[in-house]
Design goal:
With 271 residues, the chain is α/β, with parallel strands linked by helices. It contains eleven helices and eight strands. It binds NADPH dihydro-nicotinamide-adenine-dinucleotide phosphate and (2S)-3,4-dihydro-2H-pyrrole-2-carboxylic acid. (2S)-3,4-dihydro-2H-pyrrole-2-carboxylic acid (A1CAB) binds next to helix 6.
């Protein structure tokens, strides 16, 4: 088994870190990355092999494109002579399978995956779309890779990957934004940075654990914290006055729109 990542940045590192704790070994994974420092760090931390883009990649069953969307076309041209009959997985936001296929000279064994960074701690969730030419073995192998880093949701309609990108791909950033804001609020209440972080992190961790283990939905759980005439009611009222809920929905909608826009922009770049 050899899985080669093209691009050794944030998301590749998160996926590799997760995979290595569950079912894969350093020998299974290779990374192509231009930055010497990142290559050294990846091989020291994970015991994987690495190479620079101008070097040949090892024979691979799977090639995962983990570069930025804007880098994809040039990198695809570089890698194309070495794809042979590997399964191609793209984790890039926006870029449609049809565009990737054009950039790979008509190659069609392509699966799009939209992972997220909690993959590093096997708590990720990935959206997956398989192009028509993908075999059942390809799907089974992809399932195995993704099972090692968390949950997965397969979609038949490729456009749903834009929505998954907006919710769970970008989603950890929204959660970290809220966590950071709660820490700032704790500091404003006079707590030092360590205690502020502890209060915020454990509140998130506890609330998520409770929600996952509860038959109640999130709305009901919120009501159970909100005593009539109490403190939470006042806070929720302030959030509603500032339209925080609808702003979160609008933010995710903006992310989905950007994903579609990337798909359109880069999809035109095929001549
Ligand atoms: N970060 C996230 O949470 C998520 C990201 N994604 C997707 O994953 C992809 C990567 O994102 P992310 O990891 O955040 O980005 P990064 O910029 O951290 O990683 C991309 C890496 O690719 C390297 N690279 C550039 N050119 C080449 C080349 N010719 N050959 C090999 N590697 C090259 C870059 O090097 P250099 O910096 O020197 O250019 C960089 O280290 C994107 O397409 C993104 O849409 C998907 C889900 C979540
Ligand atoms: O911000 C981005 O474009 C990528 C895709 C999802 C998360 N990070």
């Amino acid at each position: 088994m050899k899985i080669t990542y093209i691009g050794g940045g944030n998301m590749a590192a998160a996926m590799i870190g997760g995979m290595l704790t569950q079912g894969f070994t350093g020998k299974d994974i290779h990374v192509v990355e231009p930055d010497t420092g990142k290559r050294a760090e990846l091989s020291a931390q994970y015991g994987i092999s690495t190479s620079a883009p101008e070097e040949r990649i090892p024979a691979s069953q799977v090639i995962v494109f983990a570069i930025k969307p804007q880098q994809f076309r040039a990198v695809a041209a570089q890698i194309l002579p070495q794809v042979n009959d590997a399964l191609v997985i793209s984790i890039a936001a926006g870029i449609r399978a049809e565009t990737i296929s054009k950039w790979l000279n008509g190659y069609e064994r392509i699966i799009r995956v939209m992972p997220n960074t909690p993959a590093l701690v096997q708590a990720g969730i990935s959206g997956v779309y398989a192009a028509a030419e993908v075999t059942s073995d390809d799907k089974a192998l992809t399932e195995r890779i993704l099972a090692s880093i968390g949950e997965q949701v397969w979609v038949d309609d490729e456009s749903q990957i834009d929505g998954i990108t907006a919710i769970s791909g970008s989603g950890p950033a929204y959660v970290f934004y809220f966590m950071e804001a709660l820490q700032a609020a704790a500091k404003a209440q006079g707590f030092n940075a360590d205690i502020a972080q502890k209060l915020a992190y454990q509140t998130f961790a506890g609330a998520v654990k409770l929600a996952i283990n509860s038959d109640d939905d999130a709305g009901t759980l919120q009501v159970k914290v909100t005593s009539k005439g109490g403190t939470t009611e006042r806070a929720i009222k302030a959030l509603e006055t500032s339209q925080v809920r609808s702003t979160i929905i609008a933010a995710a909608s903006a992310a989905a729109a950007r994903s579609r826009e990337l798909g359109d922009e880069l999809g035109r770049d095929t001549e």
